[in-house]
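Exercise 7. Given the encoded structure of a 172-residue chain, write a plausible sequence.
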């Protein structure tokens, strides 16, 4: 019952294509969430939420040149394996991402990288999600109810959105 009320409150605040006033947020809603994924990616099979999995398939279809990293590794281990200056889609829980962010050098991170956070509204994740949103290194943050999005986007004013992404063409 509480989840239904929480979802209704989210929909009341959430924006679709019209009303986002951010080119990146508009692109996420219109171009990414509005398309059909070409291929279901095998790397997303361990993600349990169908709406998160669908959006990740759409995101990867929109930007196939981005490397996808579903990782529980530390930033130090990751930087040894690959160059952080390539654009990536990082997928983690907020707890693991908070630890990862504490270790990463944002000057080495590609500005177009996107961080996807699982279930930011889950009781155990809410505090970490709020701290990640407040982190001054992330200028773009979006609550999409089932998942959250973060991106450094230097040069952009710090903004937080509630976006309708995931189901249908442009709605949850």
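Solution.
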């Amino acid at each position: 019952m509480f989840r239904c009320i929480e979802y209704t409150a989210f929909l009341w605040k959430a924006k679709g294509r019209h009303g986002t006033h951010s080119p990146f947020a508009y692109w996420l809603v219109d171009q990414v969430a509005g398309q059909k994924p070409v291929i279901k990616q095998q790397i997303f099979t361990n993600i349990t939420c169908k709406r998160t999995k669908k959006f990740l398939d759409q995101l990867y279809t929109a930007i196939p040149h981005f490397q996808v990293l579903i990782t529980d590794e530390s930033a130090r281990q990751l930087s040894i394996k690959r160059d952080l200056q390539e654009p990536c889609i990082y997928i983690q829980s907020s707890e693991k991402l908070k630890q990862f962010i504490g270790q990463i050098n944002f000057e080495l991170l590609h500005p177009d990288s996107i961080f996807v956070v699982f279930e930011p509204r889950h009781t155990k994740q809410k505090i970490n999600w709020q701290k990640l949103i407040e982190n001054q290194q992330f200028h773009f943050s979006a609550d999409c109810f089932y998942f959250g999005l973060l991106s450094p986007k230097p040069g952009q004013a710090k903004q937080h959105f509630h976006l309708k992404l995931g189901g249908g063409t442009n709605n949850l």
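Remark. The longest strand covers residues 88-93. Students should compare their own answers with the one above.
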